[in-house]
Amino acid sequence: MLFRNRFLLLLALAALLAFLSLSLQFCERSFPVPLSLAIIFLIFDSFPFHLIPVSTAKNGVSSKSRKRIMPDPVTEPPVTDPIYEALWYCNIPSVAERTMEGHAPHHFKLVSVNVFIRHGDRYPLYVIPKTKRPEIDCTLVANRKPYHPKLEAFVSHMSKGSGASFESPLKGLPLYPNHPLCEMGELTQTGVVQHLQNGQLLRDVYLKKHKLLPSDWATDQLYLETTGKSRTLQSGLALLYGFLPDFDWKKIYFRHQPSALFCSANCYCPTRNQYLEKEQRRQYLLRLKNSQLERTYGEMAKIVDVPTKQLRAANPVDSMLCHFCHNVSFPCTRNGCIGMEHFKVIKTHQIEDERERREKKLYLGYSLLGAHPILNQTINRMQRAAEGRKEEIFALYSAHDVTLSPVLSALGLSEARFPRFAARLIFELWQDREKPGEHAVRILYNGVDVTFHTSFCRDHQKRSPKPMCPLENLVHFVKRDMFVALDSSSTNYYDACHREGF
Questions:
Q1: Could you confirm whether 401 is annotated as catalytic?
Q2: What is residue 467's predicted lDDT score, i.e. its pLDDT?
Q3: Which residues have C-beta within 8 Å of that of residue 78, sequence separation ≥ 6?
């Protein structure tokens, strides 16, 4: 009887899954956008992402410390799926995440951590012409989804921060989003929750487990830097509050970075700009070749009654992603509705563009020069920590997708996806207690250990059984090998930026 009941239960579940699968094939035709998305969200929420495959230990050594791979979630479809990619990009806070930050053999001591983040979910920067703006509320409400147990306390703590030390022009920015109808580019409640979660995750690993900072930490032990946008400052504050709840405002000092590349006084680089111009030309030619994309833009332009060029210039995918991530219907006019089929075509083209960008290498040249200043600053800080200096042992850069993407490319992480909302890239510095003079690094992207996918440490694993990469490898890469990768005779950043004949 028990066997029969189990069999009937399995049969019923199989029937239900078959029904859902069939429904998903026709949901965009049969249902309005919110319902079809609701079904997709239900399935993704029911089967959480598993970013790290777990295998049994071999020879007494944990596979987590030995095997370094860059896995995809087990739910990833066998072929490129624009809807799956868009859901990944949204980074819905309810999705479970297993991470590898802070994992190391017991005889390694954590010395310093450098964190690079993209701001969290935001309101669009562009509006689809002649359509109503998506109605997203940018006030923070504790009992509204997405929820975080520290959300209400975060708002309360931010209201006390008017006397904090912020480098101009950060002083004039609001410390948390607070508009009933979001302003353009404003951080949403989703974006705040994403970084509260990031901060809490890092707190559990780096403070509770590894005691990176003492309980009486000082101002000079933190390095905080952000661009002059409210969404980056607020994202940095949300992560910082999750990391150091109820921190003392008198100890906080945020530096302002005027460039999205975080290049400080080294931003003038003519060769980098030439690489960028060639990359933009490549993007333009790829769009011209995509007849389906051109038809899609033409259809959307007719719906909103504007010239196709004007619609394309308004970057409609930015607004469409907001509708998608917040489960809001795409806009309609008397001429019809922008639909999921339009969104899929544009998103598919973005995926194809990323693939060709990796193949053509023009973006790599731009990235090597664009990321060098911030990577050079990072290794200098890590070297000081390796020497025993205690200042700036936790660094946080609150940035943009156009900050993280060049860094990922420069490091040789060709498999890494374009930075999603609230993406995080982390550099960990470890000291070998058995050989105190030796230091090693780990690189993690969204919780996945990608150290041995970097160009500076890809071959090290073949020669050494150690689960980390020597700090010297990263130093040599930034100081020398980044210029070698440009196929030039330059041996320093200035010469590489001003070489003739490119």
A1: yes
A2: 81
A3: none
